[in-house]
Amino acid sequence: MDILALPRLTWEFLVYLFLVMPDLLPIILSLATPLALGALCGVLGERSGVVNIGIEGIMLMAAFFGYLTGFAFHEPLGSGVALALGIAASIATGAVLGLLHAWLTVTVRADQIIAGTMMNIAAFGVTGYLNRLIITPSGRGGAGVITPFHLPDQLASLPLVGPILAMFLDQGPIAMSVIVLVLVSQFALFRTRWGLRTRAVGEHPKAADTVGIDVFRQRYMNVIMGCAFAGLAGAYLTLESTGSFQNGMTGGRGFIALAAVIFGRWTPLGSFLGALLFGTATAFGIIVNVRPAEGDLGALMKTIPTFWYAALPYLITVVILAGVVGRSTPPAADGIPYAKEGKG
Amino acid sequence: MRNWRVRLAPTWAKASIPVYSIVLAFAVAAIVVIVSSVFTETGFSPLLPFAAYASLFAGAFGSGTSIGNALVSAAPLMFGGLAVGLGLKAGLFNIGVAGQFLVGAFAAAVTGASLATAPTIVGMPLAILVGATAGAAYGFIPGYLKARTGAHEVVTTIMLNNAAVLLLTWTVNDLARAPGFSFPRTGETGQSALPILLGRNLHLGIVFAVVAIFVIRWILDRTTLGFEIRTVGANPSAARYAGMRPVFITALTMTVSGLLAGLAGAIQMLGVIGFYAPGITASVGFDSIAVALLGRSDPIGILFAALLFGAFRAGAPLMQIETSVPIEVIDIIQALVILFLAADLIVRKVFRVRAPKVEITEMATVTGSWGGASGGSSGAGAPR
Questions:
Q1: Which range in A140-149, A252-261, A266-275, B116-125 is most confidently predicted, on average pLDDT?
Q2: Residue contacts between A and B (CB atoms, under 8 Å)
Q3: B256-294 confidence digits (pLDDT tens)
Q4: Which residue of B has its CA nearest to A263?
Q5: For the domain with range A5-327, which CATH number is right: 2.30.30, 1.10.10, 1.10.3470, 2.40.128?
Q6: Best CA proximity match to A261, nearest among A16, A24, A35, A19
């Protein structure tokens, strides 16, 4: 091992990254989409003071019911209509489960972590149950996937700009909508009356109550809206990305989304960046298999087993949580149920 | 007669909500089964839940073998329930039992296989010990991170669960693959396997599990350490003022919790599964949470809750075969039980329970540590 090995390998690594960039960029956003939508769910809830660790379950449940709707209607109505109905069903599933979570945490004042855990177990059970009962025995497929938008080749082949354009535009409608949703949420949370009320309720519910903000209503609204986003994330998994449903297919994405929330310091834009980071880690794990590096770098990277690359996003989540969480402050009333005076 | 009632009153006050929750969960799950019966081969049938529950109970208690199966399924749940319950006592929510279970199972499998020809008295305890240690180490990571940096254990343990599955798959594929098998797996545990006590499969592990219940009960109720764990869980600030070390207790509790989960994996491996292969899944993870919550984190409560859920797991396959009601109905029942425990308001309304609200401090403190908002047990801001 000569002394120049490390700088040389680093250089080779950078060159490699540059070369695979056109392949890497488009999958980053598609991998980040469910995480970003799940993180939006987390941000909206926690900004108003409700922790939701059930994002994973809500995503799974929405993924299933979206798929089931497409599955049921694609023969009589055609796959286009069925997919649209499926997405609507996913969002509705998310909203209904959001209502349940809001009722449990705001009205009943149940422990929020336990309510979320219940959601995760219920989702696993209900989807597994119905999958075994309805979809598996039928042997039929679902409504397929939404056709992604395809960037004209002239644009995609532009140097440098092409891959970046492809990252955002060579996508299906849900993935593309994420950017809009994130920007709108960021604006709404910090520049509108609704946003101010949300933050007031999450930081100091008593003060908010004193000035006439309905704490319960605000929390209900935020949790339901956020969970509708988680529902959309579910729709993305079955109706835009894979076109099929497998038990437990969310694979911890709801929890990575929670880490993205903390990484992004409870802002929509920040958590989106967090989601992109995890998307990049996952995409990298895929790319090293599809387009392995050459030369010494390739030899070195081959010594690291595939499973380590696959475990990378999970390990990064742990490291980031440990590194970032101590230095970021959650909303002051995050996770604390509110009781009006005299009702406590 | 009256005397007994008076004596049982405090126990009933503690147990009434859990018992009613189970009853209600079965009732609601029955509705799910009835509604979904449209999709079965036999078509809509309002009596299906009765048939399903009958096979479920027949599968769990119908014969000596099925009772044995129920006990065998209950043993890892006792360890797992204790793992979660002990964490809850300290205000920690260990959802990482699944990962710690796998790590413990793997370590026990490898150790057991390498000592397959050694006498049982040497191989078995060593394999269990290594499994427990591996689980403890895997529990220490989130515990240490929580104590030192405040990284919430709910997220870190879930991530470590996923990482464990992948890294163990790699280990079995590349490092610990036993020669002579057509698929990646560890070798036979041979002499290191847990001896069968009775019948076809009732192994020694069940005895260890019951012993563990009483050991943890003793630690929690009778030792300074147990007192510190409970105090840190109830009020970390008070614990700090009283000279206790919340940071240390947090890390230690997660380690012991991981140790118990590792033991669950070790006895399941040495008593039932026999070898580690990629794809062995552990429903023990989520089941343990349900068991701990149903048992209200009390070791004796966990003992009964584990027996109950062990019986469900043992009986479910027969139910699926005889009535084609999917085994996942058990997960639904579990979620419902947790729902009714978390929102005991529903149970109180339905059954008109007037029992005083039992202290569920161990449940109420879990969210408090999310961001250190309520003084939290994170210890992130603790003076060092």
A1: A266-275
A2: 181
A3: 999 999 999 999 999 998 899 887 766 788 889 889 988
A4: B151
A5: 1.10.3470
A6: A35
